């Protein structure tokens, strides 16, 4: 996979310098490139306990992103997924440690344990007070003699860092770190492995599967399970965590492993807040990218028992963009719509024939969802099918609320429903179409003429004309032929839709911004939807 890098051997040093250049002068590094890569706070008061952490790079913003007031004093950065050298760790310790001593916070990986441990011994030989704690929060592999250290490490950084900032001594800071480690549990899940710069990607996780309990270096997890939905995936992860927790209030950290979108992470947060684990979760950190695995399409959840004292330390503000803060996990609150936007609902009236016709129209659009999305991906953002299918599902759900026996009111009610449930410009345009058709029907016009009036209003506001490569290219000829029957309208719609494949430039809609080469030979998805709708009604 192509990545935004220059040379693999320089990626870590260049990334560190980028972090320093954008830190506003709050960070600096030791002059030891390329072998010693240590990021430190500027203006550090060596009379306080120093906190040093680090490990392999590729977990950004950890660890250098958490260097700053109230968290780490220094971060020692190794190569991608590789422990830093003993000399690099020792340099970091010597650079920031004064009479108050230093705490090393180390994730439980062999290389980190050995290199940080030996560096600690050498620092003690210099007469420095150095403590070391090992974070082993991963519960994925219960039979592993030494559990891995993963995103729960951030609880240690924050709580120990806040105590050190307040002037606590080394014994107090170390005791707090040890206590947090003992209570912290984490588990991760991903839909894909990560891509290490300069190396071939390992395609270990097949489509339709999710891997539970994989490590932050892409190590295999405890099992691969069928992936059905975000709710199911998160439920599998929280089930593992629940077995390790008591009923005390906990803080939860929802971490993006690097390649999961912000939209997906917010959805996962919603699922977490509604999960069986939720009654034991009082506060949340995230969702955010904190301890990543390059571009891994996954998430991890870490939990820690929450005492009032620890909560105060977690909530203490820090000026670090990488730390998202600790907040109460609260219920959704709502406000009533402003006056004028609350819809006036028409009186529902049953009409089985009309209901059956509308349901058939909806089912046609729902069945075409994947095909229309694939077609739209060639000229837009790939969501035409989902937009129409979502509106169709919402309309089916609203069927018992519609004035089915009064077609004049029905047009308006459909327009109102679409304006609320259908996103994008399509929703607005179709809402205009049905509202105008309702007005025309109320003035006594026939069904066909009412629909033509709706199309005219839609064109007036939307600006599209036949030949502009939009749904109008299929809708207009279909309405012209509708008086001859639905088969004639379907044939006209299909001819109009196919014609859009010969139009190399769109004059309206999102496709207007697309290179003509991408449009050539592809039917406009909106026109295709109209053609499929009429064709489906002929059967």
TrEMBL record:
Residue ranges of domain DhaK in the record: 7-323
Keywords for this protein: ATP-binding, Kinase, Nucleotide-binding, Transferase
Biological process terms in GO annotation: glycerol catabolic process
Signal peptide boundaries: none
GO cellular component terms attached to this protein's record: cytosol
UniProt keyword ATP-binding, yes or no: yes
GO molecular function, one term: glycerone kinase activity
Entry keyword Transmembrane helix: no
Domain called DhaL: residue spans: 352-539
One Pfam family cited in the UniProt record for this chain: Dak2
Annotated InterPro entries: DhaK_dom, DhaL_dom, DhaL_dom_sf, Dihydroxyacetone_Kinase
The name this protein goes by in its record: DAK2 domain-containing protein
Lineage: Bacteria, Pseudomonadati, Pseudomonadota, Alphaproteobacteria, Rhodobacterales
């Amino acid at each position: 996979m192509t990545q935004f890098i220059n040379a693999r051997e320089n990626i870590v040093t260049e990334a560190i310098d980028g972090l320093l250049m954008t830190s506003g002068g709050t960070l600096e590094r030791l002059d030891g490139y390329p072998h010693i890569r240590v990021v430190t706070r500027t203006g550090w008061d060596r009379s306080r306990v120093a906190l040093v952490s680090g490990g392999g790079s590729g977990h950004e913003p950890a660890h250098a992103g958490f260097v700053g007031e109230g968290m780490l004093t220094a971060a020692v950065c190794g190569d991608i997924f590789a422990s830093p050298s003993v000399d690099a760790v020792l340099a970091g310790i010597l650079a920031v440690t004064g009479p108050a001593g230093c705490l090393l916070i180390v994730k439980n990986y062999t290389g980190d344990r050995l290199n940080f441990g030996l560096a600690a011994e050498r620092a003690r030989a210099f007469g420095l007070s150095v403590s070391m704690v090992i974070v082993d929060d991963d519960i994925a592999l219960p039979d592993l003699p030494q559990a891995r250290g993963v995103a729960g490490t951030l609880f240690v950084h924050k709580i120990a860092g806040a105590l050190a900032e307040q002037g606590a001594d080394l014994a107090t800071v170390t005791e707090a770190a040890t206590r947090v480690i003992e209570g912290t549990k984490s588990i991760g899940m991903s839909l894909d492995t990560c891509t290490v710069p300069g190396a071939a990607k390992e395609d270990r996780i097949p489509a339709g599967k999710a891997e539970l309990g994989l490590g932050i270096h892409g190590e295999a997890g405890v099992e691969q399970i069928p992936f059905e939905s975000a709710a199911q995936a998160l439920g599998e992860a929280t089930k593992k965590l629940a077995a390790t927790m008591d009923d005390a209030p906990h803080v939860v950290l929802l971490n993006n492993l690097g390649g999961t979108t912000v939209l997906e992470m917010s959805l996962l947060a919603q699922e977490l807040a509604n999960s069986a684990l939720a009654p034991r979760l009082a506060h949340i950190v995230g969702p955010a990218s904190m301890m990543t695995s390059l571009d891994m399409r996954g998430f991890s959840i870490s939990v820690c028992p929450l005492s009032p004292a620890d909560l105060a330390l977690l909530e203490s503000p820090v000026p670090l963009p990488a730390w998202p803060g600790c907040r109460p996990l609260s219920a959704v609150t709502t406000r009533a719509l402003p006056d004028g936007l609350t819809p006036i609902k028409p009186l529902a009236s049953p009409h089985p024939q009309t209901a059956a016709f509308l349901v058939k129209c909806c089912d046609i659009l729902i069945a075409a969802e994947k095909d229309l999305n694939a077609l739209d991906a060639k000229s837009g953002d790939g969501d035409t099918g989902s937009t129409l299918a979502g509106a169709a599902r919402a309309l089916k759900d609203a069927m018992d609320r519609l004035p089915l026996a009064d077609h004049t009111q029905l047009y308006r009610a459909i327009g109102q429903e679409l304006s609320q449930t259908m996103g994008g410009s399509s929703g607005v345009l179709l809402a205009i179409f049905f509202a105008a058709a309702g007005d025309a029907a109320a003035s006594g016009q026939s069904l066909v003429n009412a629909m033509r009036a709706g199309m005219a209003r839609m064109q007036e506001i939307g600006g599209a004309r036949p030949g502009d490569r939009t749904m109008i290219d299929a809708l207009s000829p279909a309405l012209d032929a509708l008086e001859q029957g639905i088969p004639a309208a379907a044939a006209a719609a299909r001819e109009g839709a196919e014609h859009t494949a010969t139009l190399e430039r769109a004059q309206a809609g999102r496709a207007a911004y697309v290179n003509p080469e991408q449009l050539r030979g592809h039917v406009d998805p909106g026109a295709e939807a109209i053609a499929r709708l009429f064709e489906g009604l002929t059967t």
